[in-house]
Write a structure and sequence with these properties.
alpha/beta; TIM Barrel; eight-stranded parallel β-barrel; 16 strands; binds 6-O-phosphono-beta-D-glucopyranose; glycosidase; Glyco_hydro_1_AS; hydrolase; GH_1_N_CS
Length: 483
């Protein structure tokens, strides 16, 4: 048993990290437009790196340049998309996961009428993908909600966000339904707790000493919004599939000491809870008990739980970059990861940013998730950030990236052979883009190199790295040839 014939091979990008054009054609400011360049994140910063204040937001609104806000310029996908899509097609992509910038459609999140220029842009992108036989997988909210919904309502803490989102989603389904069959609601919904502003527009200082309460309330509103959007998606687009998405933070105990095992177990339970709610349609009892113990009281409308149960996700999408380790010993060395920290695992190597490289962990994750949920799975992000060197002749040799992917794909293949129902894989990211956590350009993920430095200088020329040719061959062989 190997990959299915129609396996969706491809790559994943997000609007706020590629598009640029942050203030063109009627787009409103999004939370991503005020994320500043932070190349030297410390490990502590990883535990709460998106701390934002009202003053920082005011300063960013005042500064209408892109200089310290690299996501505003992205890689100018807004103007380069035909060329980028042609390169994806050349690699043989069957799919492209991309997101819609909500503030391109509803600049402040609450307009009566959507922004036609924003709709037209995505329609053109979808037409281009169709021309190349690339199936889009579209995330409705990937760290780019309208900034106005954050400053006006403190983001998703306010229940009115549900209507704003459902309305936006409906406009997308109506306009793009004929091009898009696969949808995703929220990118890495679990990350609200790790970076409340980026994911949910929550400004911590506006929550007093009740930030945690605000986080769980915001999450509840997102679950309900996701369920309502799922309902609309199914009604408006026949044969559509709506997925939910998790950051898979597979956690190991540092030793077999029961205290370590318990910590790792709880960490995994808390990670899975977000998928439990969206796939099984209910809050898990242990999770509810934990909320109660923390003094969290969720405000719900009478029908909320029924809505969650009635409109569950069709498939589970997840990102996987690294595994993490928990220890009860506070003296252990800590390392960073994807907006998390953890104890350093002596058996694993790390990227330059301290994310621990663990291909077997991907197989463990696949087995665990499929056994738990028994719905089709898709890996929608996996990759490594690295600094690349352009040789004098223009070539870019990136054996480290090829190794990373080869080892992860090989474990993914084993998981499929062990019976996991996996229908696709989209690498993060097929083209260099702006990093979420540090806003660096130099933290490169792509098979395609983009000539842009951290300070924004560069021609934006696209070039093929060695990994481009390698991935092309992987896709052509439907994952059989990883060498
Ligand atoms: C994922 C996000 O969690 O991590 C992406 O969904 C992000 O948007 C990716 O780019 C890698 O993180 P970073 O900080 O290296 O860009």
């Amino acid at each position: 048993m190997s990959f299915r014939e129609d396996f969706l091979w491809g790559g994943a990008i997000a609007a706020n990290q590629v598009e640029g054009a942050w203030n063109l054609d009627g787009k409103g400011m999004s939370v991503a437009d005020i994320a500043s360049f932070k190349p030297n994140l410390s490990i502590e910063d990883y535990a709460g790196h998106n701390t934002i204040t009202n003053q920082m937001i005011a300063d960013a609104i005042e500064d209408q340049t892109t200089s310290i806000y690299p996501k505003r310029r992205g890689i100018d996908f807004y103007h380069h998309y035909p060329e980028d899509i042609a390169l994806f097609a050349e690699m043989g992509f069957k799919t492209l996961r991309l997101s819609i910038a909500w503030s391109r459609i509803f600049p402040n999140g609450e307009e009566e009428v959507p922004n036609e220029k924003g709709l037209a842009f995505y329609e053109n992108v979808f037409k281009e993908l169709k021309k190349c036989n690339i199936e889009p997988i579209v995330t409705l909210s990937h760290y780019e909600m309208p900034l106005a919904l954050s400053t006006k309502y403190n983001g998703w803490v306010d229940r009115r966000l549900i209507d704003c989102f459902v309305n936006y989603a409906k406009v997308c389904f109506e306009r793009f339904g004929k091009y898009v069959k696969y949808w995703l609601t929220f990118n890495e919904i679990d990350s609200v707790g790790r970076h409340p502003f980026t994911t949910a527009g929550i400004i911590p200082e506006n929550c007093g000493d009740r930030l945690e309460q605000a986080v769980y309330q915001a999450l509840h509103h997102q679950y309900v919004a996701a369920a309502l959007a799922t309902k609309d998606c199914h009604e408006l687009i026949p044969g559509s599939q709506m997925g939910c998405m998790l950051t898979k933070l597979t956690t190991y105990p540092n030793t077999c000491h029961p205290a370590d095992v318990e910590l790792a177990l709880l960490s995994n339970l808390n990670n899975h809870a977000h998928a439990d709610i969206q796939i099984c349609g209910e809050y898990p009892p242990l999770y509810q008990a934990q909320l109660k113990a923390k003094g969290i009281q969720l405000t719900m409308e009478p029908d909320d739980l029924k809505i969650l149960k009635a409109h569950t996700a069709d498939y589970l999408a997840f990102s996987y970059y690294m595994s993490r380790t928990e220890s009860a010993d506070p003296e252990k060395e800590i390392t960073s990861g994807n907006t998390v920290t953890g104890v350093k695992n002596p058996y694993l190597e790390s990227t330059e940013w301290g994310w621990q490289i663990d291909p077997v962990g991907l197989r463990v994750s696949l087995l665990e998730l499929y056994d738990r949920y028994r719905v089709p799975l898709i890996i929608v992000e996996n990759g490594m950030g690295a600094k690349d060197t352009v040789e004098e002749d223009g070539s870019i040799h990136d054996p480290y990236r090829i190794n990373y992917f080869r080892e992860h794909l090989s474990e993914m293949k084993k998981a499929v052979e062990m019976g996991v129902d996996l229908f696709g894989y989209t690498s993060w990211a097929p083209i260099d883009l702006i990093s979420v956590s540090t806003s660096q350009m130099s933290k490169r993920y792509g098979f395609i190199y983009v000539d842009q430095e951290d300070d924004g200088s560069g021609s934006l020329k696209r070039s093929k790295k060695d990994s481009f040719y390698w991935y092309k061959q992987v896709i052509a062989s439907n994952g059989e040839d990883l060498e």
